[in-house]
Amino acid sequence: MKNFKTAVLENKEVAKNIFKIKFKAEQFVNEVKPGQFIEVLCAGESAPFLRRPFGIHGIDKKSGTSEILIKKLGRGTEILSFLKKGDALDIVGPLGNGFELTNAKTHFVAGGGMGIAPLLFLARELKNQNKNLKIFLAARSAGELPCVEEFRKLGEVIISTDDGSLGEKCLINTPLERALKTIKDAAVYACGPHAMLRCIAELGVKYKAKTQVSLEEKMACGFGVCQGCAVEVKNKDTKYKMVCKDGPVFNAEDIAWP
To answer: How many CB atoms neighbour CB 73 within 10 A?
Structure first.
């Protein structure tokens, strides 16, 4: 983990209120793993006191750069959405534990909403290792689904939207279950809302697919001190773990889903 200041190289809107920020990151590109995250300071007038966590969207070791996706929702992300080339970023990271790449025959990557953000980095890593890859993406509508073409360069992409404006009108678990029924020896890597992840966790148990989930939680400190991101787990020694420190990636069967 490092705390450093760097420069914004690019900031562009890639979907409705969703921005991709590219920045210099020589400090961690050679050590960061898919699923890890950074904490970003939202500097400026009336800026929030706490940093904002973002999963690593992509890295380029040759250029020493990294990317995050942000969705403009509150004051903090609004400040970040206005950043321009050359503006400073104050970063802490990389933080947390990432995905464990398994030796399964087929690898399913499933992202819902902004849970898609850390999965491009993961999908690229799986592709680099010549893994058989299927990608499931879901959002409320086509306009809220970023980076589809980038995912299509890596493998087959199956899309579902709540309103049917792109792909199948259904929840992500519908096409994922169809695939799990026909493909044995599969691993599932998922990120998105808790309700979605719970459904995917149940599918993993049902079809005996090792399933890892990256939990989305509000994180204040990013390294387990404030204990504001506790999640209940199935563990005889401790009832709770911290998403920022012990996760954000967990084996789905270890979570005590509400």
So the answer is: 12
CATH code for the domain of 19: 2.40.30.10
In a domain, 153, yes or no: no
**How far apart are the C-alpha atoms of 69 and 15, rounded to whole Å?**
10
- Record the pTM: 0.95
Is residue 14 domain-resident? yes
The three-state secondary structure class of 69 is strand
Nearest to 252 by CA among 207, 217, 205: 205
Q: Say if CB 47 and CB 76 are below 8 A apart.
A: yes
DSSP annotation of 255: B
Give residue-wise pLDDT tens across range 126-151.
Answer: 999 999 999 999 999 999 999 999 99
22-39 core/surface letters (b: 16 or more CB in 10 A; e: else): bbbbebbbeebbbbbbbb
CB-based contact 222:51 (threshold 8 Å): yes
DSSP letter for each residue of 181-222: HH--SEEEEEEE-HHHHHHHHHHHHHTT-EEEEEE----SSS
